[in-house]
């Protein structure tokens, strides 16, 4: 059984899947028992066909397919629900996250206590356009001010978290952008770790700053409301 499951949501990433899978295998074979769970969010290119072909070459690879396009948060949750590992590492399917950072996150988890349920990547040297970096800077500042989640970069796709803790979180579309705040709301601790970030070499981004901002404002209000309505208590069996 794998100790860790690598969950990768993809939509129209036919030119990135093979190289990212090869890098993931190179980073983890011999380090920890793992599986790679790709979730194809109803791609319209050859992503699914490419993944099917790679299954014969990579025994750790599993492929799930959405019958209709459902978004990144749903794809991540689909992969986590199907995963067999107790801990999940996520990667964006565009190749900008570096799988070689996963062992670093695993080592950070080993240093943390039992209350640490998430280690989040932090793109210190982000390789994106100036407009994306500017938008993320302001979005992160607003989010920290509203949610007080003490996380410098929630938009980084590479994260490590406990499967059971994730599945206990409230589910909604775009929830993947607020995972540290949601974990903290549940009573767990989160840690941010600097990771490598790379420029996209194939394919195109699936969103723009304006659309993300419109959705983000509504989601921020919703998550802030969830935090104010949370209630936790210790439980003992008698």
UniProtKB/TrEMBL annotation:
One of its GO terms (molecular function) is dolichyl-phosphate beta-D-mannosyltransferase activity. InterPro entries: Glyco_trans_2-like, Glycosyltransferase_2, Nucleotide-diphossugar_trans. Signal peptide: none annotated. It comes from the Bacteria. Residues 5-166 form the Glycosyltransferase 2-like domain. Keywords: Cell membrane, Glycosyltransferase, Lipopolysaccharide biosynthesis, Membrane, Transferase, Transmembrane, Transmembrane helix. Its EC number is 2.4.1.83. It is an enzyme of class 2 (transferase). The keyword Mitochondrion does not apply. It holds the Pfam family Glycos_transf_2. This is Dolichol-phosphate mannosyltransferase.
């Amino acid at each position: 059984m794998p100790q860790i499951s690598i969950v990768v949501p993809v939509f129209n990433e036919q030119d990135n899947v093979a190289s990212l899978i090869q890098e993931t295998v190179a980073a983890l074979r011999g380090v920890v028992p793992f599986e790679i769970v790709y979730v194809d969010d109803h791609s319209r290119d050859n992503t699914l066909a490419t993944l099917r072909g790679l299954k014969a070459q990579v025994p750790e690879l599993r492929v799930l397919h959405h019958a209709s396009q459902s978004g990144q948060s749903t794809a991540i949750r689909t992969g986590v629900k199907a995963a067999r590992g107790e801990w999940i590492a996520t990667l964006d399917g565009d190749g900008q996250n570096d799988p070689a950072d996963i062992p670093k996150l695993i080592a950070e988890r080993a240093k943390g206590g039992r209350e640490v349920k998430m280690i989040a990547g932090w793109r210190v040297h982000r390789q994106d356009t100036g407009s994306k970096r500017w938008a993320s800077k302001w979005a992160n500042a607003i989010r920290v001010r509203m949610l007080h989640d003490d996380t410098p970069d929630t938009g980084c796709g590479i994260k490590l978290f406990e499967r059971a803790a994730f599945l206990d979180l409230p589910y909604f579309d775009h929830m993947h952008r607020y995972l540290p705040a949601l974990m903290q709301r549940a009573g767990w601790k989160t840690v941010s770790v600097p990771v490598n970030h790379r420029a996209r070499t194939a394919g195109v981004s699936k969103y723009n700053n304006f659309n993300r901002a419109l959705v983000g404002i509504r989601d921020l209000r919703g998550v802030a409301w969830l935090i104010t309505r949370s209630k936790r208590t210790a439980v003992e069996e008698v």
